[in-house]
């Protein structure tokens, strides 16, 4: 007999407990809870449920096999980032009751994972089955037209010079010939100013070769 039952019903009950805890303790503002392919937020002082949403669509480092994920840019974010990088003890206690703990995907996103061996659980994961993008960079393998665009980006950045903050994790995501790619900024410099001022040009070049769903992630300061 499984020790922990985490079917859709139980996960829904977990999400309700988490919401109530955050609400009661003044931590629900600017916070989202993802579970069972849903997202719950507080809107006009009442919980609002949005359907057919997975946290991986909003945080690429969240769990693909989602049980429950929390994102926050409000007081919960402040507590985590200002007090020993820990979520509140009361929230951790709720998760522990279900045999779970939370791990940070970023400074604003946390996903629940199993505390014990998976054999002790009956789980209905919220699975994100979209393939991961193919990551490409200036000296890597890529379709010829994409290489040309990367070379243009590199040349523009090189001329601009090393200006701005040191940034990591930036990329351009897009779909080309039905394949999703993530292109690293092409620059010989660490300063984000060398490449960010050319993002509009690169987006336009990608559109010209037929790329779609173009999205720019500016990264974070190192």
Helix content, binned percent: 25-40%
Task: Tell me the number of helical segments per DSSP (H or I, 4 or more residues long).
Answer: 6
**What is the total domain count?**
2
Q: CATH topology of the largest domain, which one?
A: Hypothetical Protein, Haloacid Dehalogenase-like Hydrolase, Chain: A, domain 2
Q: What report would you give on this structure?
A:
The protein has 222 residues and is α+β, with helices and mostly antiparallel strands. It folds into 2 domains: 4-127, Hypothetical Protein, Haloacid Dehalogenase-like Hydrolase, Chain: A, domain 2; 134-221, no CATH class. The chain has 6 helices and 16 strands. It has helices at 8-24, 75-82, 89-97, 144-160, 193-196, 199-208, and strands spanning 4-6, 31-35, 38-43, 46-51, 65-66, 69-72, 100-106, 109-114, 121-123, 126-127, 134-136, 167-168, 171-176, 179-183, 212-217, 220-221. It has a 6-stranded antiparallel beta sheet with strand order 4-3-2-6-8-7. Strand 13 (171-176) and strand 14 form a beta hairpin.
Short summary:
This protein has about 220 residues and is of the alpha+beta class. It contains six helices and 16 strands.
Features:
4-stranded mixed β-sheet; Hypothetical Protein, Haloacid Dehalogenase-like Hydrolase, Chain: A, domain 2; 6-stranded antiparallel β-sheet; alpha+beta; 222 residues; 29% helix
